[in-house]
Amino acid sequence: MSSAGDQTESKPKEKIMKIQDSIILVTGANRGIGKAYVEEFLKAGAKKIYMGVRNLGSVADLMAEHPGRLVALPLDVTKAEDIRNAAETAKDITILVNNAGALSGGGLTGDQDMENARLEMEVNYFGLLSLMQVFAPVLKANGGGQIVNLSSIAGLVSFPGLPTYSASKAAVHFITQSARTILAAQGTKVLGVYPGPIDTDMAKDIDLPKDTPQHVAERTVKAIEEGAEDLLPDSFAEDMYEQYLTDPKAMEGQMQVMYEDMMAEAA
Ligand SMILES: NC(=O)c1ccc[n+]([C@@H]2O[C@H](COP(=O)([O-])OP(=O)(O)OC[C@H]3O[C@@H](n4cnc5c(N)ncnc54)[C@H](OP(=O)(O)O)[C@@H]3O)[C@@H](O)[C@H]2O)c1
After folding, report:
1. Per-chain mean pLDDT for the chain
2. Which of 51, 85, 98, 200 to mutate to test the pocket of ligand 1 (most atoms within 8 A of CB)?
3. Span 16-25, pLDDT tens digits
4. Which end of the chain is more exposed for a tag (fewer CB within 10 A), N or C?
5. Cβ distance 194 to 152 under 8 Å?
6. 33 lines ligand 1 (CB under 6 A)
7. Who contacts 60 (Cβ-Cβ below 8 Å, separation ≥6)?
8. Does the Cβ of 157 fall within 6 Å of ligand 1?
9. How far is the CA of 34 from the centre of ligand 1 (A)?
10. Domain boundaries, the chain
11. Protein fold of 14-241
12. In this predicted model, what pLDDT tens digit does every residue of 141-174 receive, in sequence order?
């Protein structure tokens, strides 16, 4: 697992991707980390970026700021028809960024929790898996390419305050690891990204120190261009993962304390 400051654990493969002149699809591109990815990829010289969005109007300003290199693509990652159409349209991509995500904020035993858990799995896991399925042949045809999957530090360390979200991101982690092995044969590299709390709409109710979406995007560009396999893009994620590796049970205990504090504050 590589960190924000140290990419030495990554294992560069023969063919390293460059953002310069690449053609990229970013899901959930209209705000938060997805929007930061679009801006950072533009800066790094991407030739064309498809912005997968549920509402085309949500990227009108971005399109106006960067005429010519951006394409708005209707893409709800839970809709099979949108996914099929996206694969038909974006046949020229060399990089797929599975960024779209949902955090329902659900617990474990409440009335709405099963519905919330299904939504998180549909968007975070099945959406990402569907995109990998339809775009793997596209990437192969275009020379191999790169997939970037957004998991979370909550996909490596279980967060009892976000139990079903954590489980959906753990599913992303495992499918990302398998995809890396399976798709290596066709020359496709797979990068897993595991952020801690990042200052976006998703984390607005999370009372923890937050890094910026821009920093995640900068670190991701660097990780792609260094051929990294996984990235902890911020110091919160980096520290937490290190503690988890040192003593997983102690980390579980810390998460219990964090959960009890959270419940006491909410009472
Ligand atoms: N923020 C954090 O602290 C944090 C930490 C670790 C990992 N992450 C992960 O990073 C990724 C980006 O998160 P963020 O913080 O930028 O969240 P965000 O600000 O809430 O943005 C979420 C994005 O996902 C899109 N989206 C949601 N459901 C979708 C669907 N069914 N189909 C297509 N797009 C959909 C949203 O589109 P609409 O505008 O249409 O809703 C929006 O563009 C997510 O995978 C998230 O789990 C975030």
Report:
1. 95
2. 200
3. 899 999 999 9
4. C
5. yes
6. yes
7. none
8. no
9. 7
10. 14-241
11. Rossmann fold (3.40.50)
12. 999 999 999 999 999 999 999 999 999 999 999 9
